[in-house]
Amino acid sequence: MSLPDTENPSEEWEYFVRHIILLPKNDIIVKTYGFTEKAGITYCLQEYLAFGTVRKYLEITFGQSFLYGNALEPVPQTFLTFAANVIEGMNFLHQNGWIHPGLSSEKLLFCYADTPGLCCKLYDFCYETSSQERVDKEFRSGSRGRSLMEESRWNSVFHSSKLHIVKMWFVTYSDAQK
């Protein structure tokens, strides 16, 4: 992954470089191994997950009807497993001062756990104080509908440290009750 110009790095990038290595290890967060520079470009070396995004996995495995809430069938266990992974990952990030302002199935990477089973890992997160800058960038890019949480459409406040957890808990809990 190529990152911003290192001669004039943004505040977010500087913080990321200084602090991502200090983030405690967690199996639900994509691992960062370090940084290297080649030909004036700084690269972030991260764990490679060859299976793609959770969204792609769910589309291939279950069809688009599950992604858009049109299915009448019971929710597959895979969805609940991924929801539990997201809750664990978001809780871990929040406890360590990081957030994921653009959480979506496109920003979760599908993997197989060390123990038998499926899992997903979070990537592309930032530290709390840069979340507004990150959300503004998403709006300017025109990808608002695809990658920002839906609450961003109605509120000028884009982040609450508990918002993601509560939303994922509600989805998981309400689906498990059916």
Description:
This is Protein kinase domain-containing protein. This protein is of the alpha+beta class and 178 residues long. The chain has a single domain (51-177), classed as Transferase(Phosphotransferase), domain 1 (Orthogonal Bundle), CATH 1.10.510. 40% of the residues lie in helices and 15% in strands. Mean pLDDT is 71; it is low at 1-8 and 144-178.
Q: Report Rg.
A: 17 Å
CATH topology: Transferase(Phosphotransferase), domain 1
Q: State the distance separating the first and last CA atoms.
A: 41 Å
What is the total number of structural domains? 1
Rounded mean pLDDT is 71
Fraction of residues in helices? 25-40%
> What best-fitting shape do the alpha-carbon axes yield?
globular
Please identify the top-level CATH class.
Answer: Mainly Alpha
- Give, in spatial order, the strands making up the sheet with the most strands: 1-2
Helix/strand class? alpha+beta
H and E string: HEEHHHEEEEHHH
What is the count of helical runs? Answer: 7
The second-level CATH architecture is Orthogonal Bundle
Number of strands: 6
Beta strand %: 15-25%
Protein name: Protein kinase domain-containing protein
Organism: Stichopus japonicus (Sea cucumber)
InterPro entries: Kinase-like_dom_sf, Prot_kinase_dom, Ser-Thr/Tyr_kinase_cat_dom
Domain Protein kinase: 1-178
